[in-house]
Specification:
By secondary structure, this protein is an alpha/beta fold. It contains eleven helices and eight strands.
C-alpha cells in the first residue's frame, strides 16, 4: 500500500488508479475548517461536504432543507483546510432536479465560489441528462445510489435498499449508466453487501460504500458519527472509532465547575 504525503494532492485520476491497484479509498464528511484540517492531516483521501450538514450542523431531521448558499459557506472552510484530500460537495435537494441548465449552473456556482474539486448528486437514470451536461462542462461528478437521503419521503424511511431483485437490477443498471457517463466515483449507501460487491466489479470507476459491506473500493462515514460526537445515532454499519462525545461533555463539566469554584483562571493563567 502506498503512502500519500501531504504535499501530494489527491485527484480523480489517482482515485481511479487506486481502484485498479486494489488500494482502498478513504472518505469522511467535513463541515468546518478546524476538523477538516485534522482529518486531512491524518491522510484521508477525500473529504465530503455532505448535505448531512443539514442534520449535523443545523439540527434538521432530514437533509432536504439545506440550501446551495449554506453548502457553499461550509465548503469554503473545508477547502481551505484540505492540503491533500480531494473535496467533494453534495448538491442539495432542489439544486439539480428542476432542469439540466439549472443543475449545471448550480454546480458551476458551487465549484467557483467554494473552490471544491467536485460535486455529488443522488440518483440514477432519472438525473442522467444533468450528470452528462455537468461532465461535458468539465465538472467532476460523484454519483450516489441505494439509500438516497434526499428521497426519504418517497422511500418512507431510511431502510435497506435494493433487497428485492427488481430494485437490485435497477441499481446495477443505474451504476453502469453513471460509470459510462463519466462519473469518477459512485457512493453506494445501505444496500446488501453482495450487490455492492457485484456493482463494484461491474463498473470501472471506484465505489465508496456506507452500509454496503467490504466489497466496495472504499468507505465513507459521517465524521461526527465515527468520532462518537453524535451519540444518538447507532445504525448497524457504524463503527465508532472514538467516544469524543463523552469526552467533550466531561471537559465542559470540568470547566463549569472550575469557573464556579474560582479555580479558573489561576494566577498562572492571568496577566
Amino acid at each position: 500500500m502506498s503512502v500519500h504525503t501531504q504535499s501530494t494532492r489527491m485527484t480523480t485520476t489517482r482515485l481511479r488508479q487506486m481502484k485498479q491497484e486494489g488500494e482502498k479509498i478513504t472518505m469522511l464528511t467535513s463541515y468546518d475548517y478546524t476538523l477538516a484540517s485534522l482529518v486531512d492531516a491524518a491522510g484521508v483521501d477525500t473529504l465530503l461536504v455532505g448535505d448531512s450538514a443539514s442534520n449535523i450542523v443545523c439540527g434538521n431531521q432530514y437533509t432536504l432543507p439545506i440550501t446551495v448558499d449554506e453548502m457553499i459557506f461550509l465548503s469554503k472552510g473545508v477547502v481551505r483546510a484540505a492540503k491533500h484530500a480531494l473535496v467533494i460537495v453534495d448538491m442539495p435537494f432542489g439544486s439539480y432536479q428542476v432542469s439540466e441548465e439549472e443543475a449545471v449552473r448550480n454546480a458551476i456556482r458551487i465549484l467557483k465560489e467554494s473552490g471544491a474539486d467536485a460535486v455529488k448528486l443522488e440518483g440514477g437514470e432519472e438525473i442522467l441528462p444533468a450528470i452528462r451536461h455537468m461532465i461535458q462542462a468539465g465538472i467532476p461528478v460523484c454519483g450516489h445510489l441505494g439509500l438516497t437521503p434526499q428521497s426519504v419521503n418517497q422511500f418512507g424511511g431510511f431502510g435497506l435498499r435494493a433487497k428485492e431483485d427488481k430494485e437490485a437490477a435497477k441499481l446495477m443498471h443505474d451504476a453502469k449508466l453513471l460509470d459510462e457517463a463519466g462519473c469518477f466515483l459512485i457512493v453506494l449507501e445501505k444496500i446488501p453487501a453482495r450487490l455492492a460487491t457485484e456493482v463494484s466489479k461491474a463498473v470501472s470507476c471506484p465505489t465508496i460504500g456506507i452500509g454496503a459491506g467490504a466489497g466496495c473500493d472504499g468507505q465513507v462515514l459521517v465524521l461526527h458519527d465515527m468520532l462518537g460526537l453524535n451519540q444518538g445515532f447507532k445504525p448497524k454499519f457504524l463503527r465508532r472509532f472514538a467516544e469524543l462525545g463523552s469526552a467533550v461533555t466531561q471537559a465542559v463539566e470540568t470547566y463549569v465547575s472550575s469557573v464556579r469554584e474560582g479555580t479558573f483562571p489561576s494566577a498562572d493563567e492571568s496577566y
